[in-house]
Amino acid sequence: MGAVALGEAKGPAVHLPVFQGPLDLLLFLVQENKVSIWDIPVATICDQYQAWLRTMEELDLVVAAEYLVCAAWLLAIKSRMLLPRRSKDEPDPRAELVERLLAYEKVKRQAAELAGLLSLREGVFSVRLSPVESSGEPELALEELDVGALAQAMGEVLQRFRREHPPGLVLAPLGCSVQEKMRELLGFLSSQGSFPLLSHMLTRRERVEAVTCLLAALELVWLGAARVHQQRSFAEIYLVSTGEPVAVERALGYA
Amino acid sequence: MPDHHLLAAACEAILAVAGEPVSEATLLKTLGGEVTQEDLAAALEHIRQRHEHPGSGLRLEKVAGGYRLATRPEVGEVVRAFLGIRAQSRLSQAALETLAIIAYRQPVTLPEINFLRGVNSSGVVRTLLERKLIRVAGRKQVVGTPLLYRTTKELLVLLGLQSLDELPTLEELGEAEGSVAP
Amino acid sequence: MPDHHLLAAACEAILAVAGEPVSEATLLKTLGGEVTQEDLAAALEHIRQRHEHPGSGLRLEKVAGGYRLATRPEVGEVVRAFLGIRAQSRLSQAALETLAIIAYRQPVTLPEINFLRGVNSSGVVRTLLERKLIRVAGRKQVVGTPLLYRTTKELLVLLGLQSLDELPTLEELGEAEGSVAP
Predict the structure, then answer these.
(1) What percent of chain A is modeled with pLDDT above 90?
(2) DSSP per residue over chain A, as a string?
(3) Averaged over A222-251, what is the pLDDT?
(4) Looking at domain A178-252, which CATH architecture does it have?
(5) Could you read off the pLDDT of A117-161 as tens digits, one per residue?
């Protein structure tokens, strides 16, 4: 269990213990209350547990789902404690709680033991002179081969393969053909005389449609049915009808 | 009978390039048929004693079923500074608890770890796998066939132990009963 | 004035973990401001002398980039023998990758392995066959009828698995597709 310092501009800093999980919090409460783990006053501990959850929530600490599951479990034990036992053989509703707390407390002591051993070894590093002829390639002792190493190697192969074989360019099916677009533009031109090509292109939802539109306009210009006109750089580009019936005829033929 | 000094020198050179514990068997195999177990023991003892000199930065260790040359803890801080290793590479409390569960109860599955700790420990397990302190050792034949985890040789080296049997038992740690309440 | 023995020990430990020449400047910087150039020179001289003992397998060398600890030429042959013996019990990255492909894609042919790895893997496949980690399992009925490869029972034992069905998916071990780094 560590601690977060919650420094406030005013008032003293509050040191809140950081719990490793609901069991850690429960163990802390049992110790705080100086009660025997074999005779836990569930009602008290349950209330205090919920108070801690509220505090953690108020401080915006992430309260993992496990804490809530445990809260529900405590409530269930608390309510069962209120019911009279039907027989002497009926197990104490707290039995599983005690068992899990004891097991977790063991884990904590074993963890402390490992931490102690590790701290003794902090300054010890393996000597490794580079031999004259080292392959430089990382190698794995056969005895250390495990499925993890195998899966990792497979992952690397697949990653490299994907890097070296990027997926080919996939074209989305055209929403409309150039021909269709030409017919559409000719329709606009015959009724309006001119057409704001750039804004039309920029407001298309699909990039493909904008490109199709541009190609259709260029096609019309090439066939002599229309010309483009722009006042100055970056201004609107107008598609203007040339008014040549032959060219329009020809364009409609193409379209 | 081989030259004792040369034999010690050869052993030291082997351990210096190995970078990991080397078993007695491998040493004997490398040194050739004429070298007996006694010769080897004498050579290793010679190396051990030579590094007891206060001017030596190294020492001979017996860990994880073999011998290795390692730096002496007294100069550990300087070495750490040289390697640019920060204290942050220390294991978190969550990692220590998970490692303790695996070390004392192996082989063990993630659901078992989660149950004992009361929290999901999959992220911690992945970190321990990446640091090569634990390894996957098959699957448990129960519903869902979860992966089984064991500790590695690297953990033994890190702990400076010959085998996990050297870890203090629960009894030695003070059996749980009553020890929770002050 | 710093403790001369401790200073020599610190220098030796640094050189022993460096694996490459370390410059005087780096040594001075690592050892801290109080250590003068003269102190360092004395410490290095101390290390040099200590390794002149015939029972030492190492020596201090002054090379282009600075100082380094190296094995003594007299024991070079033994060191080479050790590295050779060790290589026999190790898998190179290429071998590990090939083994992984065969394990996950079996039965699989050499052309398929080559395609996935992007390099010719016939040498590696031979090594894996020799080590009995893979076996030939018939021929694929395509042009050239290439041999099909499968993993062996020995590999399963090594991995601690009962059957190949127990091989974890890449997703289970966090090697999923999503982890493709740019």
Answers:
(1) 24
(2) -EEEEE--SSSPPEEEEEPSSHHHHHHHHHHHTT--GGG--HHHHHHHHHHHHHHHHHTT----HHHHHHHHHHHHHHHHHHSPPSSTTSPPTTHHHHHHHHHHHHHHHHHHHHHHHHHHTTT--B--PPPTT---S-EEEGGG--HHHHHHHHHHHHHHHHHHSPPPPPPPPPSS-HHHHHHHHHHHHHHHSEEEHHHHHHT-SSHHHHHHHHHHHHHHHHTTSEEEEESSTTSPEEEEE---HHHHHHHHHH-
(3) 83
(4) Orthogonal Bundle (1.10)
(5) 998 888 888 888 876 555 555 678 888 888 888 988 999 999 999
Residues of chain A contacting residue C92, judged by C-beta atoms under 8 Å apart = 135, 137, 139
Two tokens, residue A86 = 């039907």
Which of C83, C104, C138 is at the close of a domain? C83
Residue B128 lies in a domain: yes
Q: What is the Cα–Cα distance from A98 to A93, expressed in whole angstroms?
A: 10
Report yes or no for ipTM above 0.95: no
Q: Answer yes or no: is B72 within a domain.
A: yes
Q: Is the pTM of this model over 0.90?
A: no
Tell me the pLDDT tens digit for each residue of B46-94: 999 999 998 899 999 999 999 999 999 999 889 988 988 765 578 999 9
Q: The domain containing residue B131 runs over which residues?
A: 93-178
Q: Position of tokens 């080919």?
A: A168
Read off the pLDDT of each residue in A48-55 and give the average, rounded to a whole number. 91
Q: Based on the structure, what is the number of domains in chain B?
A: 2
Asked if residue B126 has pLDDT above 70, the reply is yes
Nearest beta carbon to residue A21 from set B72, B119, B138: B119
| Residue C88 is assigned to a structural domain of this protein | no
Where do the domains of chain A lie?
15-83+93-107, 178-252
* Chain A touched by C91 (CB under 8 Å): yes
Taking contacts as CB-CB distances below 8 angstroms, the residues of chain C near B18 are 82, 86
Give C152's pLDDT tier (boundaries 50, 70, 90). very high
Question: Is B10 within 8 Å of C86 when comparing Cβ atoms?
Answer: no
Q: Between the CA of residue A6 and those of A2, A48, A56, C136, what are the distances in Å?
A: 13, 21, 12, 65
Q: What CATH code is carried by the domain that includes residue B34?
A: 1.10.10.10
Given a cut of 60, is residue C35 above it in pLDDT? yes
Same domain, B165 and B116: yes
Final residue of a domain: which of C30, C54, C83?
Answer: C83
Q: Can you give the pLDDT at residue A48?
A: 94
Tell which C residues from 102 to 121 touch A, by Cβ distance under 8 Å: 103-104, 116-118
- Cβ–Cβ pairs < 8 A, chains A and B: 155
Amino acid, single-letter form, for residue B81: A
C146 band by pLDDT with thresholds 50, 70 and 90: very high
